[in-house]
Design a protein that fits this description.
Elements (H helix, E strand, L loop, with lengths): L3 E7 L6 H9 L7 E7 L5 H6 L7 E5 L4 H10 L5 E4 L10 H5 L1
Parallel strand pairs: 1-2, 1-4, 2-3
Length: 101
């Protein structure tokens, strides 16, 4: 069976990150891996991300290197067959992962 990881790169997205994360956690077909990469945020984004660790979300914090670097960090820290990137200000529709897989 193929596996899928969801990766959210985030930089100063404290007001949107919870909705994006919740939209992934609410999926009927759960991701095999869920990673949030905080790209050196200067707001409370990292603290919001860490609040999801109890849900099995892996949080990676790095110095600010830009979106491409944050995505690459996500790729390097997953072992799934597929990776779905979701920007921190986006949300997945209901059953999106089930439909994709």
């Amino acid at each position: 069976m193929k596996t899928i990881a969801c990766v959210i790169p985030s930089y100063n997205q404290q007001e949107f990150l919870p909705e994006a994360a919740e939209s992934i956690l609410a999926q009927k077909r759960k991701p095999d891996e869920f990673v949030i990469v905080d790209d050196g945020s200067e707001d409370n984004s990292l603290e919001y991300a860490k609040s999801y660790e109890k849900e099995g979300v892996r949080v990676i914090s790095q110095v600010n290197k830009g979106l491409s670097s944050a995505r690459n960090t996500g790729i390097m820290n997953t072992a799934s067959d597929y990776i779905l990137f979701l920007d921190a200000d986006d949300m997945l529709m209901e059953n999106a992962l089930e439909r994709i897989m």
